[in-house]
Design goal:
The complex is a heterodimer of chains A (about 425) and B (about 400). Chain A is an alpha/beta fold and about 425 residues long. Chain A has 18 helices and eleven strands. The longest helix of chain A is centred in the middle third of the chain and has 19 residues. Chain A is globular and about 65 Å long. Chain B is an alpha/beta fold. Classes of the chains: A alpha/beta (about 425), B alpha/beta (about 400).
């Protein structure tokens, strides 16, 4: 019988990921159960989903309830159970245990996890459960970020992974990236290594300066430390620790959690979720920002850095001369230029290094390109190779920064394609 | 009088979902992206381009920048000294640029002209933008002191239909839903990732507020930034270009017919003058029938698709009977029978139109021509109308004051 998905049970629908992903499903005409510990929590999730869709109409497709009273109704009806509960192995496993007697054989169960070891999640569950278990890692918010990494574990039916990839693409309009079952998959593995290195550099050069240097003009919609504030410093730490534990590669030493960052977390400076205490940034009542001083852990006023090559590059971007801007960055001299070049080079080197490890070799750089563009709103690694003048010049840059020059970069031809719509990744800011 | 064929060689559209002010980009960056993208798509070379005609409505207001043609000269060293010109006709600005390019080619002045349509609109608040748009009407009489003059004017168009023939707002909601659904298939459409369906379009509420009268948010095209660069060429250039691509000139689309009329500026005058006539906007109807005649078409059923100017659902409702899909006043029949949907007998706005794809005012006419090109060359991707050979475009400026129609085909 041909498999179809019409009804979905979303577990953890009170949270941001669960509610917004569940809302996306409802927007696309699926009947969705929003389940969480309390009905009120699920109802709040529904409100978030409505705000994302900017339409009350989607509520017609959503049924809210709590686990105790509605799990037994929803799970047997579900064709797909999307688990978005807390990123904790024991919590997830306890939930799977509750699902086991309720789900119909063949019902798909997917987790939104990317940092836990996928193989461990369905341990102890039936053969049918494991055969139909996979990770569907939606990026947040799904209304703006279309990336979805997809991955089975060793016992997952490969045909199921193919079916879900097709469903996510066609029905939910996701940019589907098949990944290998490694910690952080592709996107978080790459992005958080860079975040880690930038937090390390911030200890020496300051928060405001690092976000100025690695600002949007370098190929991202949001500066990196501001992004960590958005993610939450506690989540950042959990992801870095997971990557430290479960990955090993030539750039592993860059996966650091500086002391000051640990102290910030200890003192409750977690980012936007602790608005009063702040994170790397603290928003004042006036609307202005202060930045934390990593040395004293106090907030200091903005000093608005002004570095000539950065301003010149932004001016070129302002008038649409993107490649000229990156030639300017590549050729710039001085400490600040060195930092920008190092981060760009690390991003490119690490991304190409991981071809074959986080994504299948056959996809070349394209899978990683796609997740960085649609999951983070960053210019893709191959786009930066184009902007920096091609792979030979890029390889020279990597070597000059003491970074490995991956064979996959030297063999790459993707960067040669004309980068339509590339300008969107380079705000002149 | 027989005139030389004018060929349409394709081009490039920027992603209409972008906000260029938020990217801190100058309007010339948008033109540059459209131009550079067009070279990559068409394989036309800078040395081929003999003139650049720019369609733009109001960069002086939105961006404090005039004289847009001069920016084109910066895009390549080969363009120093290039003849350039800017055209303005409200929302029909780039259709006028294309008409003029066509005339220059037929006069034998140039063989290949770049036509760029561009508008950056997200630089100001909606209220200020609405006021600027009011200058496309008779500002003193129809716009001054009115918050959103154009929704009001096109709401009145619906009122005229209601008075003369009857109008059910659910048909307008269906028009909106079709355009949004089509836009989901278009990777450059402004609303491709937005949620909207018929039920939402029927409701009024927090997320679909009433603007004025029968016009709700979902009845309106949205404020859009965008640029398009297309190429028009002579028979001589087209022959050489076709050789370059390993094709025959017969494989290249050309402008089969065109119509161009101007109605009185004030909407009440237009409507008063059409009293007792079958068509609410007779000058729009004339532009369409002129284009049919010049293209040698019997009627709309000789077309495979239409890209029309749905700045509001009421303007598409008007276009349905004015193109002749139904008798005057019976546009609802084509909507109910699914004629205008993808897969219908004559799909309207496969691209999503202005409501779904977006409406960067001065770029819309060029965008419609580019989409017509894509349809007849079967390169429209997911929004391709299978086997399309002839496509019409209707670009209107003001309250259907300037009307420009093209028929594109092979």
């Amino acid at each position: 019988m041909e498999r179809t998905i019409q009804t979905v049970a979303v577990l953890g629908a009170s949270g941001t990921v669960g509610s917004l992903t569940g809302g996306l499903l409802a927007q696309n005409g699926l009947r969705v159960y929003f389940l969480s510990r309390t009905r009120e929590g699920s109802q709040k999730g529904l409100e978030k989903a409505i705000a994302q869709a900017r339409s009350e109409v989607i509520a017609d497709n959503i049924i809210c309830g709590d686990y105790d009273s509605m799990l037994s109704e929803a799970v047997p009806k579900a064709d797909w159970i999307l688990e978005c509960v807390a990123e904790d192995l024991s919590v997830k496993q306890a939930m799977y245990e509750r699902l086991e007697p309720l789900r119909r054989p063949g019902t798909i169960v997917s987790s939104v996890t990317s940092s836990l070891v996928l193989e461990d999640l369905p341990k102890g569950r039936s053969e049918d459960f494991q055969k139909h278990f996979l990770s569907t890692h939606f990026y947040n918010p799904p209304g703006k970020m279309s990336a979805c990494e997809i991955c089975g574990q060793s016992k997952t039916d490969p045909a199921l992974v193919e079916f879900m990839a097709d469903f996510l693409h066609r029905r939910l309009r996701r940019a589907v990236i098949p990944v290998r079952p490694t910690a952080g998959f592709a996107g978080n593995r790459i992005a958080f290594l860079l975040f880690a290195r930038i937090t390390e550099l911030a200890a020496e050069y300051g928060v405001e300066m690092m976000d100025y240097l690695i600002g949007p003009y370098t190929g991202r919609v949001m500066a990196p430390l501001a992004t960590i504030d958005l993610v939450g410093l506690d989540i950042h730490k959990a992801i870095i620790q997971s990557l430290q534990t479960h990955t090993c590669d030539a750039l592993h030493s860059k996966l650091v959690l500086p002391d000051y960052l640990e102290k910030m977390i200890g003192q409750g400076h977690l980012g936007r979720k602790t608005r009063d205490k702040g994170g790397f940034y603290k928003r004042l009542e006036s609307g202005q920002y202060e930045y934390i001083d990593p040395k004293s852990l106090t907030y200091i006023p903005a000093f608005q850095p002004h570095v000539r090559f950065v301003e010149e590059a932004k001016q070129l971007i302002h008038i649409g001369r993107y490649r000229d801007a990156f030639e300017h960055i590549r050729e710039a001299k001085g400490t600040e230029a060195g930092l920008v070049q190092e981060i760009l080079a690390t991003y490119i080197a690490y991304s190409y290094m991981l071809v074959g490890e986080v994504t299948e070799q056959k996809y070349g750089i394209e899978g990683i390109d796609r997740v960085m563009m649609t999951g983070f709103n960053w210019a893709s690694p191959s786009l930066l190779v184009y902007m920096l003048g091609g792979k030979e010049k890029t390889a020279e840059l990597l070597a000059s920064k003491g970074l490995p020059v991956p064979a996959s970069l030297l063999e790459d031809t993707v960067w040669e394609r004309y980068p339509f719509n590339a300008g969107r990744y380079f705000p002149a800011k | 009088m027989s005139r030389e064929n004018v060929y349409l060689l394709g081009g490039y559209q920027t992603d209409f979902a972008r906000n260029w002010a938020r990217e801190n980009k100058h309007i010339s960056a948008m033109m540059r992206e459209a131009y550079e993208g067009s070279l990559a798509v068409t394989r036309i070379e800078p040395r081929d381009i003999q003139a650049a005609f720019i369609g733009n409505f109001a960069a002086e207001l939105y961006c404090m920048q005039g004289h847009l043609g001069a920016f084109f000269v910066d895009f390549d060293p080969a363009f120093r000294g290039l003849p350039t010109c800017r055209f303005e006709g409200a929302c029909a600005s780039s259709a006028l640029a294309a008409l003029s390019a066509m005339a220059h080619i037929q006069a034998g002045l140039y063989d290949c002209i770049a036509v760029v349509g561009v508008e950056q609109m997200k630089t100001v608040s909606p209220a200020k933008g609405g006021d600027y748009l009011g200058t496309a009407a008779w500002y003193e009489r129809e716009s001054a002191g009115i918050e959103f003059p154009f929704p009001k004017l096109f709401g009145k168009l619906g009122d005229v239909y209601e008075a003369r023939y009857g109008l059910d707002n659910r048909h307008l909601a269906r028009i909106a839903a079709i355009n949004y659904a089509n836009a989901k298939l278009n990777p450059n459409a402004q609303t491709r990732d937005w949620f909207m369906d018929y039920n939402h379009a029927c409701r009024t509420g927090q997320y679909n507020t009433a603007i004025v009268g029968r016009i709700k948010v979902t009845d309106c095209s949205q404020v859009t930034d965008g640029a398009v660069c297309i190429y028009l060429a002579s028979e001589r250039f087209a022959a050489e270009y076709a050789r370059r691509l390993g094709q025959t000139p017969a494989a290249l689309p050309r402008i089969l017919g065109w119509g161009h009329t101007t109605a009185p500026m004030e909407f009440v005058t237009k409507v008063a003058e059409s009293e007792g006539q079958p068509y609410v906007l007779p000058w729009t109807r004339k532009a369409i029938t002129d284009a049919y005649r010049r293209a040698g078409l019997k009627d709309c059923w000789d077309l495979d698709a239409i890209e029309t100017h749905d700045c509001f659902t009421t303007s598409e409702y008007m276009a349905i009977d004015h193109f002749g899909l139904t008798e005057p006043g019976q546009s609802w029949k084509a909507i109910e029978e699914g004629v205008i949907e993808m897969g219908g007998r004559l799909p309207i706005n496969p691209s999503g139109g202005l409501i779904g794809c977006g409406h960067p005012v001065g770029a819309t006419g060029a965008r419609q021509l580019l989409d017509a090109y894509k349809q007849v060359t079967e390169t429209a991707g997911d929004y391709q109308v299978p086997g399309a050979r002839r496509v019409a475009t209707l670009n209107i400026g003001g309250s259907a004051t300037t009307n420009v129609v093209f028929i594109v085909g092979r």
